[in-house]
Specification:
The chain is mainly beta and about 160 residues long. Helix content is about 0%, strand content about 50%. The model has no long low-confidence stretch (mean pLDDT about 95).
Length: about 160
């Protein structure tokens, strides 16, 4: 049975991801993904000249960002725009919700609240690199879209 969760950022251990030269973040999971939960809420800190994730969109999960501090460069299908503290951005679960949020600063970190819905299974599309990711139900896989096969291949 779910219980009320009360936490403070200062009580959380940051998850640090830095596997690629263009992508890095510290993530504080205020509300981690749970098997029975429908939401995931984190605070992201993006270092100067980095992004958290590549340009992508989801087919099931919706995302919302609230900028807490710093300045970001947001790219969507509608182009690029600057976002600053106090800006709220909602990304629908379809190609119109494609996005990448980058920190263009040389010195200042970008900090934002990330609120996501959590479907049992989600698919993300990466238009720039031609990849597809599948997550949920103990699946965590990435493929090149060009690797597509016929429905009956191998049957």
């Amino acid at each position: 049975m779910e219980e009320i969760i009360f936490t403070r950022k200062s009580d959380l251990e940051a998850v640090h991801e830095n596997e690629h030269r263009d992508f890095e973040y510290l993530k504080y999971e205020l509300l981690p993904k749970r098997r029975t939960g429908q939401s995931r809420i984190s605070i992201y800190e993006i270092p100067p000249r980095k992004s958290a994730y590549p340009y992508h969109y989801h087919t099931k999960n919706e995302e919302s960002f609230y900028i807490l501090s710093g300045t970001g460069l947001l790219r969507t299908p509608d182009g690029e725009r600057t976002v600053t503290a106090g800006d709220f951005i909602y990304f629908p679960a379809n190609e119109k919700g494609a996005h990448i949020l980058s920190n263009p600063s040389e010195t200042e970190k970008l900090v934002y609240l990330d609120c996501d819905t959590c479907s049992e299974i989600d698919v993300a599309i990466y238009p720039d690199s031609g990849k597809i990711g599948i997550w949920g139900m103990d699946i965590d896989q990435m493929y090149k879209i060009t690797d597509q096969v016929d429905y009956y291949d191998g049957e």
